């Protein structure tokens, strides 16, 4: 039974890492700018499509017709030659194989620019407007983004293969000194978990141990006082919006081998990540991370056959059930601060 | 004093009224007796007739929907006498002339069903009421097929189902106005189980992951019955939501369930995701109960096999048709489709194309678009040359009875299309069953409801 529980726990950590990563950016924007950003899921989706674009560029082909050979339907055969491999040889093949992790390098500057442009161009005009209006405008932005992606890439999911070396499962049981092939877990999911942990740790370290982070935290606590000290807090908050976009984008890139992205990807995660943020406490970074992992693990255990035998269908509602219970017991969420989103 | 006789008397009014009612109501019926053929939904009066294509162009089964659309466009071109004629040249018997249907050019309208039953039903309603579709066809989900054929029964419009594999489509939910060329889950079980027994033995423990809707349920039931008859046990059967994307939470319990076979009752993108993730979890490298762990996908298509890539190699399933069959019909269709679109057709494309032709042929044989006459022409109709061998459109349940293919993921493909091998053709007699076992009632063909 230990192996079953351990596997479900690993699964929960993996799911929780994805939830936490998205919720982190969402609560970062809310905590700094006070904006309820419904376009955050769209930023996750845009990151995923950065990976799609990079792969499309790397797998461009030349097509030549060979009249000597025939296809199964009797037409002259099309010979397709990958362009990058033709130019760069084996190195080109390596680039194609590792297209997903390599996409991160392209995604970071693109998402930073997207985030800053979004904040300066639209979001800043809504700082002093009611939350309802912020939700409307950011939700509108999300719809625009997904329709643009739909028109460019089509409506259907586009699979992104993981590097061949990282396919398959790692024998964690054997690593822990147990019998082989009892506890195995997909390598890419382990990588995603480690990646999420590094990014979350990096964001916390950035806010905790840098002067920039200190000013931002001060601004989160009391924006007016920091402004009175002559510090341009608005510029820092703009950069924080860009940082949140980068975190969401990177999360999207690394998720593509697990889930082929389509234009609707952001919306699929948006609702869940809002539940995570609310359960964690609006504007609380530790709350978002804790709630992400908590809900991921609970969802995973709720999917066990033994649990579903007692409460059928519990795996589909567990997250919302826990959210209701936590909000009843702690109306501000797990780590919510007094005065945030309260009239 | 005398009574005035000016103006109508009460008796006169009653007499005149009765005469009027009789004259306007009954007399026309006497004169138009036998003119029933003109009184039905979307009776085509111009020089064109419109097909309504209800296709899942987005959602879980979008790949199949896109391929069906290509097939319908090709079928309509061939019916109108364009292109190389495709299967018109090999259908036996055939009343098709390549000049449209009953001399009317075939046109089409289409609607994206989004792989959702309610959207499919709304789209079909729109195509019937607004666009004047004479016949609705398409779909890649049994949920959609059952919803749309129920609607078509209510509206008096024939529905030629696309890809639908649930036993219920021509079982408990069958309708007089609905017809299915595709095979069903019961036939998959009958066809696949002996091959599984031969390959994996009779001492196996199966674990089912099942798409939670009508098709998944009947697929699971059919596979359980067929494998348990072999001597296999069933460890568990777990339902997963249609369109689920992350199967990790459903896969981890399998590893320690005592099962040594995973049966994926999934289709389309669901199957691509669940199979790929099962392989990522190392299931194909595992040993359980002293045997190699196996994965089975009872219904599989070329599109899914292509999507699943390496994961599908060596995996068994069943198909309705395969482009690499060597009969004249399969070759003709593959040639036409490949020349038009640069890729071989899927089984979804094949069934869509055949359904369009069979409807047109039935109308030509009936000599009218009047649905009850077309239904009579389809019921019990025997034909050949469409790539499935001799086939009958069974009158009792509107299910086509024909051979079934057992296929296996190709271990060493020679091209991106060479993903499945046909390992066995199960003959028509073996997969024939008593239509009464699934119950249901076709309902009446007449009186014909009027759609608007």
TrEMBL record, chain A:
Q: How does it sit in the membrane?
A: Multi-pass membrane protein
Q: What is its main location?
A: membrane
A Gene Ontology term for the protein's cellular component: plasma membrane
Q: Its domain of life?
A: Bacteria
Molecular function (Gene Ontology), one example: transmembrane transporter activity
Q: Name one GO biological process term.
A: amino acid transport
Q: Which segments cross the bilayer? A: 16-36, 43-65, 102-123, 190-216, 237-258, 270-297, 309-329
Places the protein is found: Cell membrane
Sorted alphabetically, the keyword list is: Amino-acid transport, Cell membrane, Membrane, Transmembrane, Transmembrane helix, Transport
Q: Describe the family membership recorded for this protein in Swiss-Prot or TrEMBL.
A: Belongs to the binding-protein-dependent transport system permease family. LivHM subfamily.
Q: What is this protein called?
A: Branched-chain amino acid ABC transporter permease
State the organism of origin: Devosia aurantiaca
From TrEMBL, chain B:
Q: Membrane spanning segments where?
A: 12-31
Name the UniProt key words of this record, in alphabetical order.
Amino-acid transport, Membrane, Signal, Transmembrane, Transmembrane helix, Transport
Q: Does the keyword Lipid metabolism apply?
A: no
- InterPro entries recorded for this chain? BCAA_transport, Leu-bd, Peripla_BP_I, TAT_signal
Under Gene3D superfamilies, the record lists: 3.40.50.2300
Record carries keyword Methyltransferase = no
* GO BP terms: amino acid transport
Ranges for domain Leucine-binding protein come to 48-410
Q: What PANTHER family does the entry give?
A: LEUCINE-SPECIFIC-BINDING PROTEIN, PERIPLASMIC BINDING PROTEIN OF ABC TRANSPORTER FOR NATURAL AMINO ACIDS
Family per similarity comment: Belongs to the leucine-binding protein family.
List the protein's name.
Answer: ABC transporter substrate-binding protein
Name the species this protein comes from. Devosia aurantiaca
